[in-house]
Amino acid sequence: MEEEKGTTGSINLSLNGKEEKINLSGQVHHLPCCIKFNGHCTVSQYFKPKLKGMEIDGLAVEEAHFRGRKLQGTTISLPNGYAGFVLAKNNSGKRKACDVSEGNSNDWEMKAQFDKLTYWNHDAPPSKDDPFLRSFHWFTVAEAVSFSIICCLKNFFPPYFEIPLLQLHKQVKAEDLATIDAALA
Amino acid sequence: MGSEAPLPKWASTPCIMGIDEAGRGPVLGPMVYGCLYCARSYQKTLATLNFADSKTLKEEKREELFENLKADDSIGWSVDVIDPRELSAKMLKKNKVNLNEISHDSAIGLINRVLNMGVLLTEILLEYSDQSKGITRLMKENGGLVYLDTVGDADKYRIKLSERFPSIKFVVAKKADSLYPVVSGASIVAKVTRDRALREWVLEETSENMHRSFGSGYPGDPETKAWLAHHKHSIFGFPTLVRFSWGTCTSYYKDMVEVESDKVDEDVGYGSSGKQLKLSNVGFGKASKRKIEEIESSGKGRCKFFHSRKLEQLTHF
């Protein structure tokens, strides 16, 4: 597959007739391993995180065990304005011929939502230097980048160009961000 | 857990102490280190108390002897209960700690505990001065003595302990639990504590259909085997009562969901004895480098900002 081309698809974040949205806050765990299984599992019966009663870098340390390994982690809130979603492929049967020719449908729908998650390290206690926490820096950068691009391009185009401009921001390449890197490192 | 304060008078006279373990071999439950100490002058009486290697005694007899020694004012004791979660976690750490090291550390911890209580285990220097001959000499005599059943090579273990406690004299021997009554006593303390801990174990997991007929915990015990088979879980492996680092668990892993660790350095483990398992055998598959890149965003080839945060652009989802 050509990486640059990407794919198109849709993500439906509406409730789709479901009565209440499922909130998984506090039940989403990011483990330092890949469990090769997709499906339901009674996680809370076996996975019992405990607060250690101490803080590192302002993060409340939790401890749990998975397959004999000691995991240390912390529960973090997603930044304001962001939400976590559990998505599932939309297999509602309304698949069109063109989807099939693409190989796979790429339409997703929201199954549950969360605003908190717990990430775990094997052996090491959580710290603000963990890549997972540091990846949140991207949110700040993304906001700054899209804002500056829209601002500078707005000088050249009339307001109704805003939609294509937003798409443009998605195509920002790593090279464009090299300078921001230096500023944030 | 151990004998209660205040410290008896005899503890300030030279004492002997025995240290032994229970539950080293079982695939489940805690490992217990126990120690028993008394004044050197009590040694002869100790020999009459029918302490024997705990393995040769029936459970009721062990319980009875334990109650007797607890009631005996001339005897002190202490235990270190090592949780199975701690055993698994240490043996499966990135920098693995093998069972011998865990055992040594536990014995060292007990010695420290008893020393800190003020029990005289160290050798004492006696100054002998003979005025008529005009000589003064220092003699080591009738000091404390600590007896241990060996873990690994006896000489190496003794040297390790002597380096740690230069003023204590150690006797490290195979089958110390049947040779020295003070070690036999320690073996009873350890064994009874381990059996009780297992009997009263509260399973952390809250799944239905769990029971507590663990058997002895030894891998060959049919009851233990049945319990393991009944309590295996395709995602979580076993309840945390089980020592995941034990070879016995391997045969169950083939029915379980594969778990890949996302760190390359996980399978380089060192400090492992011959008995220790490689990760591929204990439910965490070895992930090849290429596969790791598939399961973990590496941010490779991108600018430093993304690389250090393991962020990469997702074009297919």
Question: What would CATH call the homologous superfamily of the largest domain in chain B?
Answer: Ribonuclease H-like superfamily/Ribonuclease H
The gyration radius over C-alpha positions of chain B equals 25 Å
CATH names the topology of the largest domain in chain B as: Nucleotidyltransferase, domain 5
Question: Using DSSP, what is the number of strands of chain A?
Answer: 9
Instruction: Characterize the largest beta sheet of chain B: strand count, sense, and whether it forms a barrel.
Output: 5 strands, mixed
Q: Give the rounded overall mean pLDDT of chain A.
A: 74
- The whole-number mean of residue pLDDT values of chain B reads 83
Question: Helix tally of chain A?
Answer: 6
Instruction: Give the CA-CA distance, first to last residue of chain A.
Output: 33 Å
The CATH architecture assignment of the largest domain in chain A turns out to be: Beta Barrel
Major beta sheet of chain A, specifics? 5 strands, mixed
Rg of chain A over CA atoms, rounded to whole Å, is 20 Å
CATH class of the largest domain in chain B: Alpha Beta
Uncertain ranges of chain A? 97-102, 153-172
| Count of individual helical segments of chain B | 11
User: Could you spell the SSE succession of chain B in H and E letters?
Assistant: EEHHEHHEEEHEHHHHEEHH
